[in-house]
Design a protein that fits this description.
alpha/beta, Protocatechuate 4,5-dioxygenase, Chain B, 6-stranded mixed sheet, two-stranded parallel ribbon, 9 helices, 12 strands, about 15% strand
Length: about 325
């Protein structure tokens, strides 16, 4: 069994990652259900995913000791949470269909950590949350697709945790894991800002855009796109305590179904639920800043808007990918 180093570190940020599926590893000539793929392996969008660790300052000596990920593709509904618990690579879960054959041949041999998985289970147990260790399941595509670009060396232990069907409860799960941030663990929520119909009407697309805009507006000021992160943070939170900031965000993510366009943006809860898990992981954090570090509409219909909570080195929002 590998040994995990629980030595305290500087507080890690939290990442809500719109993971974009196998489109990121497809060839430029390969289409997405008849549509031109604007996020193929050699695209600016794929390059943006590759740049995330550098943008967040999580390379070299600041590289995460482990990645703990709430995945949209690991659902347990109202049952006990599941936690991947394996030291050695067990293969991947190619949980998608209709993509080119080569997308089912890729490998991402990242290790796990049974020791860290048991520690996480203990945190849940102490909080009265039932969970089970899963020693067999492979990493699903919400994990391995973006990580293939972000950390291609596959040398960081990856632990996936399942999601439930209730936003407030999912946020609570994130709260329980918040202490991991000071132990060198990068907490990632892997979902998508919108994940509507794959055969959308004009109304479907319009409503997804409305949801992405309104959801962001409630979490950040209306004119976020014209300001630096520091200006956004100052305008929004300079008069609020960290507890007040957290409480305001919690109210937004818990009541997400009341936001305009929600039922079009997320006809199923799966790709939304990692987000409240991320917000929960910011409770009692030293730095409550929230940033948008990438933004793209995949073939014009799904939002890949990606958020970071906590400190990271850039002063400006990333506007290159729109």
């Amino acid at each position: 069994m590998s040994t995990f180093d629980f030595t305290e570190t500087e507080e890690m940020p939290v990442l809500f990652l719109s993971h974009a599926a196998p489109v990121l590893i497809m060839k430029e000539s390969e289409s997405i259900m008849g549509r031109k793929n604007d996020a193929h392996f050699k695209s600016p969008v794929a390059d943006w995913y590759r740049s995330i660790p550098t943008k967040m300052g999580l390379i070299n000596e600041n590289k995460p000791k482990a990645i703990v990920q709430f995945s949209a593709h690991y659902e347990t509904g109202r049952g006990p949470l599941k936690i991947l618990a394996q030291d050695k690579y067990k293969g991947l879960l190619y949980d998608y269909y209709g993509f080119p054959n080569h997308t089912y041949d890729v490998k991402y041999p990242a290790p796990g950590s049974v020791q860290l998985a048991k520690h996480i289970q203990n945190l849940f147990t102490q909080a009265g949350v039932k969970s089970e260790l899963d020693p067999e399941r492979g990493i699903d595509h919400g994990g391995f697709i973006p990580l293939m670009l972000m950390y291609p060396e596959a040398d960081i232990p990856v632990i996936q945790i399942s999601i439930c069907d209730n936003a407030k409860q999912q946020r609570h799960y994130g709260e329980i894991l918040s202490s991991l941030r000071k132990q060198g663990v990068l907490i990632i929520g892997s979902g998508q800002t919108t994940h509507g119909s794959f055969n959308p009407t004009k109304v479907d697309i319009e409503q997804q855009h409305i949801f992405a805009r309104e959801f962001t507006k409630q979490l950040m000021p209306e004119d976020w796109s014209n300001k630096s992160n520091d200006e956004v943070y100052k305008d929004t939170t300079e008069s609020l305590s960290n507890d007040e900031i957290y409480t305001a965000r919690a109210k937004v993510v818990d009541n997400w179904t009341s936001i305009s366009g929600a039922k079009f943006a997320h006809p199923h809860y799966d790709h939304y639920m990692p987000f409240p898990g991320c917000v929960g992981a910011t409770k009692n954090a030293e730095d409550q800043k929230m940033h948008i570090i990438g933004d793209h509409w995949l073939v014009g219909m799904h939002s890949l808007r990606t958020f970071v909570f906590g400190a990271y080195p850039l002063n400006k929002m990333v506007k290159a990918i729109r």
